[in-house]
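Journal club prep, shared notes

We agreed each person brings one worked example of a sequence with its structure written out as tokens. Mine is Galactose-1-phosphate uridylyltransferase. I'm keeping it raw so we can talk through how to read the token line rather than staring at a rendered picture. Sequence first:
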Amino acid sequence: MNRSALVNIFAKRVIEATDYLDDDKVYLINQILGIVGESSYMVAPEDSDLEKLSTLDILDQLIMLSKNNGTLANRQMNEDMLGAQLMNLFVPIPSQVNKLFWTYYQVSPESATNYLFELSKRSNYIKTREISQNISFPAPTNYGELQITINLSKPEKDPKAIAAMSHESNQKLQYPASQLARENEGYWGRLDYAARTNHRVVPLTLGGETWYFQYSPYAYFNEHAIVLSQTIRPMHIDEENMARLLEFVTQFPDYFIGSNADLPIVGGSILSHDHFQAGRYELPMAKAAIKQKIHIANVTLDEAGVLNWPMTAIRLIDKNKNKLLKAAMHVIKIWHVYDDTSLSIKSYDENGTPHHTVTPIVRYRHGRYEIDLVLRDNNVSDVFPDGIFHPHPDVQHIKKENIGLIEVMGLAILPPRLKKELVAVEDFLLEKVDHVASKHQAWADQLLVSHEVNTENVENIVQQSVGQIFKRVLEDAGIFKSNDTGQQGLQKFIHEIE
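Then the structure, token by token:
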């Protein structure tokens, strides 16, 4: 490998993809040399083999060069940190990104988001190569087609660790203050903290406050965005934030937006920093039909009803977002204090700790606003110490993590461990091995006796069974079950909100 040729081709790619000019090439070469820790450079002829490589393949070689020459070890850096510094050459400074975003917005909101999304991919902030390794497949159910993804680009998080993090006191000063804080923009990272050198955010105004719009580096769906508050405060689902969700889709009508619930167990992985998730994508829940029409007390809406969905979800639709907000808050306030001990539904414990909240999703479709409110309860019991309305023990071999916003909407984000584990189950069904991991054994035994398995159908059998288990996961997280008792309980709750 000709080191100088490698540096030269990377500088050339930067010029081709950005506003840098050929006159900037010497500057860029020196920046690249400094980042990778090379002290010499000789002008070399074009290398036709390097020309054939993708920019990310060239990046890999530069990172390896830096690793081999001791730069990573000497500077106490990892490969991700160095890669982000190199790819930062593809990104304008924050003020320029902000200016360009809002210039494109004058054309259309879609033009603005297209600009930032493409920039985030081009700079490898959105990990397109890693994301492409994810395993995805559909799962038809009686609620419609769910979507399954075995995530190979983001580490698995434990629900108990998430809850512990949300209660940590600020005994030590941390910078950046949160994984979502604006201060991540341009941050070099640490060995224990992700690099964000090539990261850019765009300020928005929501509810009279400054919020920031950015994309997720893990992109669970198309244009997966995060909208975060400038003020670092705990997640909260209230009228203030519900109004912000409606305001966002007014500004960006081709995106949906939603919020994780604001309580442990039923909430997302970061409860300590107020934020939403958005995107240009129709998740399975958006396609769910209303199975029972309802009325909301003191508000007349275009439509309102309970969705045909494994979790208890109420959809509210109207052209007037103020009416819709009023209706949503009525449902939320009733649910916050609603009890039904026969169904283990308890709004507060003896210490006054709240246990009820919602996962809200907001869209603007066909000239009308939509709000989906998914009822959540984070109580635990002796029988279900991980959560009464959480994946129960018999399905935790597939999904034990919190059921957050994305799962609620029908997209399973399953842990990377399952890639190898599902192959092992397939081998067991084909009698290549005589056992699997103990947590999967009962499931694998059941599949073996209930299916005629061969090499052509084994993968589909396992995948479709995973889909049915994910459906069960959502049903476990649902408040009012689909059985007679659950539906009778649902009618009692509806009576309270009508």
